[in-house]
Amino acid sequence: MQRMQLVHPAQVQQAVQAWQQMMPPTTYWPPVQTVGAKQTPRSRSPPEEVKLSDFEILDGAGGRSLGKGSFGVVRRIRRKGTDDVYALKTMQKMEVVSGQLVEQVEREIQVQRNLKHENVLRLYKHFEDEDTVYLLLEYCAKGELYQLLRTQKGRKFNEQMSKHFFVQLVRGLKYLHSYHIVHRDLKPENLLITHDDVLKIGDFGWCAATTVPRTTFCGTMDYLAPEMIQ
C-alpha cells in the first residue's frame, strides 16, 4: 500500500499566513446562521470563591444538557443576580475512580486553568463536594463545531467560513504548542463555537506535555494522525 504523503509544516505555515492576510485577527466573518441561536454574552471571571449554590441551572436539573460523556455531564448555568452564563461540567468521583481516570481529570484541571487565549476554552474555576467535581467553563452558545456543521446546507461550510475557523484553530494550537502542550484528541466535537463565531479548543483530558516522553495510545480513531496508526 502506498504511504500517505504528509504536508510539510512550512507549507501549512505559508497557507496560514496567506489566510491571515485575507482575514486579520480582529476581523470575523459574519456569524453562521443557525436556528434558535441567541446572542449570548460572554462568560466573565467569577469571584475568587464560588460554590454550587451561587448558580442556577438554566435548563432545569433534569433538562437538556450541553453535552454528556462517559462519566460527566455539561449544563448551562447562570450566576445568580447576574447575566453571566457558564458551562458547568460535573464529574462523579466514584465513576472517575472506578474508571481509573483520576490522573486524567487532575491533568485537565491543572493544564486548562492556566491557559488564557481567545481560541482556547477558559476554565474559570473548579470546586467539589463530597461526591462531585465541578468545572466552571466558558460558555459557547453555538456548541460543538461538529453539530454546527450538521446544520449547514449540504452539511458543509463555505470556503470563507472554513478558512475563518481553520485560522482560529491554528492560532489556538500555536499558543498551546508555545507552552509545550499537545492536545491529543483534536476533533470537531472538541472545538466549540461562541455566539459570534469565535472557535475555542476544549476538552483537555488527554493533553500532555511535550517535555515528557509519552507512549499512551489515545485520541479518537477517525481523527488520529497517520503516524500514530502506521
TrEMBL record:
<dbReference type="InterPro" id="IPR017441">
    <property type="entry name" value="Protein_kinase_ATP_BS"/>
</dbReference>
<feature type="binding site">
    <location>
        <position position="203"/>
    </location>
    <ligand>
        <name>ATP</name>
    </ligand>
</feature>
<keyword id="KW-0067">ATP-binding</keyword>
<feature type="binding site">
    <location>
        <begin position="189"/>
        <end position="190"/>
    </location>
    <ligand>
        <name>ATP</name>
    </ligand>
</feature>
<dbReference type="Pfam" id="PF00069">
    <property type="entry name" value="Pkinase"/>
</dbReference>
<keyword id="KW-0808">Transferase</keyword>
<dbReference type="GO" id="GO:0004674">
    <property type="term" value="F:protein serine/threonine kinase activity"/>
</dbReference>
<comment type="similarity">
    <text>Belongs to the protein kinase superfamily.</text>
</comment>
<dbReference type="InterPro" id="IPR008271">
    <property type="entry name" value="Ser/Thr_kinase_AS"/>
</dbReference>
<feature type="active site" description="Proton acceptor">
    <location>
        <position position="185"/>
    </location>
</feature>
<feature type="binding site">
    <location>
        <position position="89"/>
    </location>
    <ligand>
        <name>ATP</name>
    </ligand>
</feature>
<keyword id="KW-0723">Serine/threonine-protein kinase</keyword>
<dbReference type="InterPro" id="IPR011009">
    <property type="entry name" value="Kinase-like_dom_sf"/>
</dbReference>
<keyword id="KW-0547">Nucleotide-binding</keyword>
<feature type="cross-link" description="Glycyl lysine isopeptide (Lys-Gly) (interchain with G-Cter in SUMO2)">
    <location>
        <position position="187"/>
    </location>
</feature>
<protein>
    <recommendedName>
        <fullName>Protein kinase domain-containing protein</fullName>
    </recommendedName>
</protein>
<keyword id="KW-0418">Kinase</keyword>
<dbReference type="GO" id="GO:0005524">
    <property type="term" value="F:ATP binding"/>
</dbReference>
<dbReference type="InterPro" id="IPR030616">
    <property type="entry name" value="Aur-like"/>
</dbReference>
<dbReference type="InterPro" id="IPR000719">
    <property type="entry name" value="Prot_kinase_dom"/>
</dbReference>
<feature type="domain" description="Protein kinase">
    <location>
        <begin position="60"/>
        <end position="230"/>
    </location>
</feature>
